[in-house]
Amino acid sequence: MTSRFRKFLGDSALSFPTWAYMLFFFALPVALVMWYSFGFKPDQFTTHSMEQLSLGRYREVVSPTFLSVFTATLRISIVGTLACLVIAVPFAYWLAVKVPPGRRGLLLALVLVPFWTNFLVRTLGWQIILSPDGFVSEALQGIGLLGSPLDILYSRAAVQIGVIYNYLPLMILPLFVAMDSAGVQLREASADLGAGKWRTFFQVTLPLATPGVVSGCLLVFIPLTGDYITASVLGGANGTMIGQLVANQFQNAQNWALGSAMAVVLMLFTLAVVVVTALLALVVKAIIRYVGRVELPTGQHAGTDAGTAADLPEGSRVRQAEPAVSGTTTGGPHA
Amino acid sequence: MSATLSPAIAGELSIRSLHKEFGGVAAIKDLDLDIRAGEFLCLLGPSGCGKTTLLRMIAGFEEPTAGVIELGSTDLTKMPAHKRPVNTVFQAYALFPHMMVAENVAYGLKQSRTPKKEIGQRVDEALTMVRMREFADRSPGQLSGGQQQRVALARALVNRPKVLLLDEPMSALDRKLREEMQVELKLLQKRLGITFIFVTHDQEEALAMSDRIVVMYDGCIQQIGSAEEVYTRPANSFVAGFIGKQNFVEAVVVSDDGGALRLRSVNNTTILPEPNAAGDPGATGRPVPSVGDTVRVAIRPETLRLRVADGVPSAPNAVRGRIAGVSFLGDVVQYVLLIGEDTEILSRVPRSDAVPLPTDEDVLIEWDGADVAVYCDEG
């Protein structure tokens, strides 16, 4: 890297590979998609034309079919994200708090084992598990829980199960890191102050793991909403998720304009869900803070003591605290 | 947690045959200790001596392998940490970073479902007591080390524990602040009458604050006593060497005249300890050396007297030496003395208006038999 180049970029030179990559392979394509969404498909052999700009594609998008798939997608991704969270929280807690550090490496590796296999292949694996003549079906019939073969493959339920499986590690990892970084000391301090395991979890461990919860939810929710492999493999051809519809427009129908409009709507809705959830979280946080606040009496001594204490010599400062202590002693019977 | 601040029912701990092993290695070996109600007790020892493990067992963070811990008539041994009427000030303070100072202090009171109004009052009092009232709405991250420590202290004391455990709480503070806090903590403890158990590896800190010091080494108690006792009458050569500066010399017992030993050190100095003096083996029940035994002789640097070499020895214990180095330490002047070719000993004399003796000066080193301690152990 020449010095002139570095002078031009400044300290951001270090981030150059990242932002260059993001600019050329993310920002520009997304901008193109947005641009195409205002175009139209002029004839059977052309994917798009920008000769006449309109919002016509968006009007097409707001069709009943699209909207029903859209709500289904939203439901699958919200339920999927929440399910991942509910499954991952106890696991991450167990891994970060209960498991001796020496064995964590192995368990984390096991969490990541599914990633060693191709996404499509391990989703296909679920076809075998969920098929009517698969071992799950036969086992359930064997113990009498099912009267007829399992009928779940190529349904929304199958997609739901598949996405939870596919995205669970993405929830576990940030949660584990967050819970691990809170450290054993704070949990001990909490126990020392009289909080049992559950109270410590809800008042210390979980609040401190909030950044992990947020990043885990984002890591799961965003790609899950756009997922189309799981939906195609386990949901069948009728299209249970929006990603399938988008892919269909680009690949089969060769209607890039309509596909682009669908993609833009998908992005905007994902963004909206994230923003609304974030706002809700902030409100909840504010409420918790308000409920848990400590109101100190605004007596005169409290205000003046603070101001004058710093100017007094050591001995008198210590003595000045005495009225408060005698107050503490008389407060004893309340305890 | 229904303790009140009345000294009458402050914590009296009794520890019986306490034993703790980590993976087969003993950290605490069959330890017995009685801690009096309302005393300031220091657990002092080098790192790895088991003092922190002992404290953590009292707090309930470690389960003893064997033995009993009782608070008054309550058996704490199997009680989970959150039910024990003891509180801890942690080494790194362990303040909750997601809570304001006031919420940190209120945490324990909330767990015991104290009425909201009382929480406010007690948090106010506790913060005022440690002079952190004006920081109530800050987050711990915005405070200095000393301020965080005060908050940690308030957070523990606000619960009115019977016993307060302090795990090297001052190790992160700079010297001046630490000395201020020592005075303050001692005054606070006197006033509240709560039993304080203070873990430290810093002997000055222990000497400055404690009613009693428990010197620990290798999972065992080496000596229990007041600051003066452990300093002037160490029970063994470990304590003699660990507390304060010490000169150790190896010597052989030449004769024993009814308890009056005559020792000869490796460099042929004759040492005459006072018969049955405080430091004498017989007085403290330590093994008495017999003629021919090799012993360790301990003489404190401040008990040595230096005179210019042309004088006549005025004490039975005297040896000639040379000043190899002089350091001015403020309130004392420290001399490194060379006896013979390779025996180095330290001498400390209070700073006076007299000009310190120069380097390379030949001196006569004198001491009293009463200041000589003799140990048969290996140290």
From TrEMBL, chain A:
Stretches for region Disordered: 302-335
Keyword entries, A-Z: Cell membrane, Membrane, Transmembrane, Transmembrane helix, Transport
Membrane topology recorded in Swiss-Prot or TrEMBL: Multi-pass membrane protein
Superkingdom of the organism of origin: Bacteria
Location(s), subcellular: Cell membrane
Domain ABC transmembrane type-1: 70-277
Membrane-crossing segments per the record: 20-38, 74-95, 107-129, 157-179, 200-222, 256-284
Pfam families: BPD_transp_1
UniProt similarity note: Belongs to the binding-protein-dependent transport system permease family. CysTW subfamily.
Name by which UniProt lists this protein: ABC transporter permease
Higher taxonomy: Bacteria, Bacillati, Actinomycetota, Actinomycetes, Micrococcales
Automatic annotation (TrEMBL), chain B:
Gene Ontology cellular component annotations, sorted alphabetically: ATP-binding cassette (ABC) transporter complex
Domain ABC transporter residues, every copy: 13-243
Keywords noted in UniProt: ATP-binding, Cell membrane, Membrane, Nucleotide-binding, Translocase, Transport
EC number: 7.6.2.11
Enzyme class: translocase
PROSITE patterns with a match to the protein in the record: ABC_TRANSPORTER_1, ABC_TRANSPORTER_2
Annotated GO MF terms: ABC-type putrescine transporter activity; ATP binding; ATP hydrolysis activity
Stored NCBIfam families: potA
PANTHER family: SPERMIDINE/PUTRESCINE IMPORT ATP-BINDING PROTEIN POTA, SPERMIDINE_PUTRESCINE IMPORT ATP-BINDING PROTEIN POTA
Name of the protein in question: Spermidine/putrescine import ATP-binding protein PotA
Species this protein is from: Arthrobacter echini
